[in-house]
Every structure is written in C-alpha cells, then in structure tokens.
Amino acid sequence: MTEAVTPTATRTIDARGSFCPGPLMELIRGIKEGQVGDVIAVLSADKGSKTDIPKWVEKAGHRLIGVFTRDGYDEIVVEKMK
Amino acid sequence: MSDTISFVLFSGTDDKLQAAAVMTAGAAALGKRVNIFLQYWALDAFRRDRIDADHGLSPEAGPAGRAAVDALRAAGQASWKETLGQAKELGDVDIQACSLSMDLLHLEESDLDPIVDGVEGVTAFFLAAEDGEVVFI
Question: So what's the ipTM on this one?
Fold first, then answer.
C-alpha cells in the first residue's frame, strides 16, 4: 500500500526498538491514555506484532484499520472504539 | 478459557525468567488475571540487591545461546524485570513470594524488590489460582 491511503493517525508510537511483546504493551498504554475515536499507529520491527496486535485488537473490541509493510518495519493502525 | 493463569517460577536463570515475563505480559494484555508464585532460585533472583544482576542461563543455552541472548539485549530487548513491570502497569498481575522459600533463603520481605507484592503460602497460592491453569517454570 502507499502512503496516500494511510489514515491520519492521532498519535504514532514508534516501537521499532522493542521486542515481543513490547510493541503491544506500548499500544495498550497508548489506547488507555487516548480518547474513543483516536487513531493510533504503531511502528514495529518485531515479527510477532503484526500477527499478535490484530488479534489483540479484535479481542479487545477496537478496530484494525490496517497493517502496512514499510521499509524494514510494519505500521499497524488501530482505532480506539471504547 | 479461564480468566486466571498462574505461573510458579522455580528457576532463577535470566532466560526462563524472561520467557515467564513475556508470557505474563501476553496474558495480562488479554485481560487475564496473572498470579506469579516465586520459589527457590527464582525467588533468589528477585532479591532487591540482585534483581538487576546477571543470573546466568539454563545449561542447555551453551555459548551460542549466551551470545544470542546477549545480542538481543544489546539490540534493546527489555529485561524481564522491565517486562514484568509493564505487565503490572497494564494488567492485573500479582507477584507473591513462597513463604517456605523465604525461610530457605533466610529472606525478609524487605530483602525483596518492590515488584514483589507479598509473601504467601502454597494454599493461598492455589486459592488465588482458582480453576485456572498452573504453569511451572
């Protein structure tokens, strides 16, 4: 996907220095701190996060906007629903 | 799926404590209540004066395993203490020291790192575990 289709994130969390489950932990903190409707982008270079974060998002009742493959990392975009 | 999972930590090497911390963080992220019960050498690793020390690796790690663990750490992997701290901050994680192991190691509660919530016996641990799984590491 291209940059143009990426929704505007309210907040970007750069977790590229973290290993599993660090990026998910940082996302959960970001969601707790945020408001309903916030769009949070997590940048992760950890292989587990692009499978684990979408599963967590579904279980926790938020909305996965997308998992975008970037140059050497993934951008996982989530909307806080509750 | 039970809402509670309990880990008995027995081994005090950094690799097993790291694995346990990652499992704890994952379970806490899903909203599970996590009980951690510290026995023997795992309890020793939670001593206030040693928690940040090098606790070695399991025998099967060998020199190649040691190098791999060191490389991940150098790349910025959080320590097991930091991961447990994150899990406690985000979820419902309770860390208890086994009272028998406290006696074995001649420890007082003030000797333990503050990440430990208290001291209890094995019966209290099983009551807290309810009908959830108990994993021994």
Answer: 0.76
